[in-house]
Amino acid sequence: MSARPLFVVAGVGNGSGTGAATARVFSKAGYRVALIARNADHLKRTAEEINAAGGEAAAFPVPSYAYGDVTSVFDQIQSHQWASGGRTELRVALFNAGAGVWKPFLDVTEADVALITETNITAAFAFSRAALLAFKQNEVDANGKRGTLLFTGATASIRGNVTTSAFAAGKFALRSLSQSLNKEFGKQNIHVAHSIIDGGILTDLSLSRRQGDPEWKNNGDVRLDPESIGKSYLYLANQDRSAWTWELDLRPAHEKW
Ligand SMILES: NC(=O)c1ccc[n+]([C@@H]2O[C@H](COP(=O)([O-])OP(=O)(O)OC[C@H]3O[C@@H](n4cnc5c(N)ncnc54)[C@H](OP(=O)(O)O)[C@@H]3O)[C@@H](O)[C@H]2O)c1
Fold first, then answer.
1. CA-CA distance, 110 to 83, in Å (whole number)?
2. Is 145 exposed, middle or buried (0-12, 13-18, 19+ CB in 10 A)?
3. Can you tell me the distance from the alpha carbon of 107 to that of 102, in angstroms, rounded to the nearest whole number?
4. Which domain does 129 fall in, by range?
5. In a domain, 122, yes or no
6. Which of 3, 65, 72, 252 is the most core-located residue (most Cβ within 10 A)?
7. Alpha carbon distances (Å) from 248 to 140, 157, 161, 182, 193
8. Interatomic CA distance for residues 217 and 25, integer angstroms
9. Which ligand 1 atom is the nearest neighbour of the CA of 198?
């Protein structure tokens, strides 16, 4: 019997953003879903919601995005007994966690630098290593790939600005990691892709930062819909290796920036 494909995502927040929306998209496409995040209650709720919709999701809370915590959660995922039984193979991994610090440079503290480094860089290295080791065990699929490793970037992945010295340093690092991995692991038929999200994503947090602005909430032309980002990630996962994307750039149609 062929193995069920597994999708794993790190960074699921409260379930209203890109991480959870992408998990729903991959679940509907037939993947088992492993959810990694720090808030166990939020995570459990998102997993239950996917299961209630007919999918198969499991929650894997982490105490932090420290290297060891990310590595050990992958061990738990690999040994997890899925309810419907049978074999499963990790086929798609999304590193979606991102810590943001938006401050003038002279206000950035050592703790801010540590947070940015741990979440955006250290965790990404641990996540990538675990995912790549799992992909290397796979045979190539119908698209000629052993697996797809995806990263969520931001405007700050390619542009520093007045309050983004810390955030942009983290996102630049993530982008360069993805490019190096694309070059190194492409030869092993593992697809690594980075996505620049150049605009605000409609999440509970983003909306609260805009005081619930109904125009921003309801006008799909001015902000990104998390589900639409998830569909683009599924598109990347479905690309075959004769013409695959390293970097995608996603933006709403009526951008002003
Ligand atoms: N929201 C936007 O407007 C926007 C725009 C461009 C790019 N992005 C990027 O898109 C990705 C998805 O973001 P999203 O807004 O759609 O939300 P999301 O997918 O719901 O969650 C993003 C994840 O980042 C983690 N995170 C957030 N703040 C953190 C902190 N201070 N320290 C450690 N981890 C933190 C959270 O981890 P836990 O799950 O462990 O809580 C969260 O799940 C992120 O990488 C973000 O940088 C967001």
1. 44
2. buried
3. 10
4. 4-196+226-250
5. yes
6. 65
7. 23, 12, 21, 13, 8
8. 21
9. 6
pLDDT in tens, the chain (257 residues): 689 999 999 999 999 999 999 999 999 999 999 999 999 999 999 999 999 999 999 999 999 999 999 999 999 999 999 999 999 999 999 999 999 999 999 999 999 999 999 999 999 999 999 999 999 999 999 999 999 999 999 999 999 999 999 999 999 999 999 999 999 999 999 999 999 999 999 999 999 999 999 999 999 999 999 999 999 999 999 999 999 999 999 999 998 87
Between helices 18-28 and 226-238, what is the axis angle to 10°?
A: 50
**Residue of 203, 213, 217, 228 to mutate, ligand 1, most atoms within 8 A of C-beta:** 203
Note whether residue 213 is domain-resident: no
Domain count, the chain: 1
* Cβ atoms of residues 90 and 127 within 8 Å: no
Record the pTM. Answer: 0.97
- Closest ligand 1 atom to the C-alpha of 171? 47
Is 234 contained in some domain? yes
Helix (H) or strand (E) holding 36: strand 32-37
In-domain check, residue 171: yes
Dist. CA 144 → ligand 1 center (Å): 31
Handedness of CA 2, 34, 179, 157 (dihedral sign): positive
Report the CATH number that the domain containing residue 8 is assigned in CATH.
3.40.50.720
77 touches 131 (CB < 8 A):
no
How many Cα atoms are found within 13 Å in the side-chain-facing hemisphere of 38?
A: 10
